Amino acid sequence: MSDASDSLIPYDEIVQEALRAVVGRVLGQVEAGGGHLPGHHHFYITFKTAAAGVSIPTRLKERFPDEMTIVLQNKFWDLKVTDEGFSVGLSFNQIPSTLIVPFSAITAFVDPAVDFGLQFQASGDLDDDDGPDGAENDSATGPEDDSTGAPAGDGSNVVSVDFGRKK
Predict the structure, then answer these.
(1) What is the pLDDT of residue 139?
(2) Residues of the chain scoring pLDDT < 70
(3) CATH number, domain at 105?
């Protein structure tokens, strides 16, 4: 039996597109709810800063030339979700910024509150890397927030898609 990389049907692209639709649907629900996250949910979203369609301030692009992680928790505004991606306002070192991120640029989505995560390659990105740069946007964590920023557990709820990727 041959492997998925020999297929004339782009299964990996189809699955990654479907997983990115999960991110879009979740963010769309937050947008529809007035931009308020339900319960203790919060999201870590990692994306390729040089990917087509990404728009971030120059100072952030210089600081994160390859990849960065943002946190949607307490301090974000103007979340807008489209079929292609999302835009959101965040503060970095107390400087308000608007980021535009296409879903195709996202490499990871994690909701530590429920130990859920998705990982996939950015479209057109087949190189291994050393992992994402850390989350750097301002956060408002209070004493009731005991989150470490890393998903809890053994990672059994993380879905990784890397069909046809040479190991």
Answers:
(1) 53
(2) 1-5, 122-167
(3) 2.30.30.220
Beta partners for residue 99, in sequence order: 88
Residue 23 is predicted with a pLDDT of: 96
* Cβ(104)–Cβ(20) below 8 Å: yes
In a domain, 119, yes or no: yes
Q: Count how many domains the chain has.
A: 1
Give residue 98's domain range. Answer: 7-139+154-161
Q: Is residue 1 part of a domain?
A: no
What is the rounded CA–CA span in Å between residue 117 and residue 96? 27
Q: Which residues contact 19 (CB under 8 A, 6 or more apart)?
A: 118, 120, 159, 161
In a domain, 11, yes or no: yes
- What confidence tens digit (pLDDT) does each residue in 59-99 have? 999 999 999 999 999 889 999 999 999 999 999 999 999 99
Asked if residue 64 is part of any domain, the answer here is yes
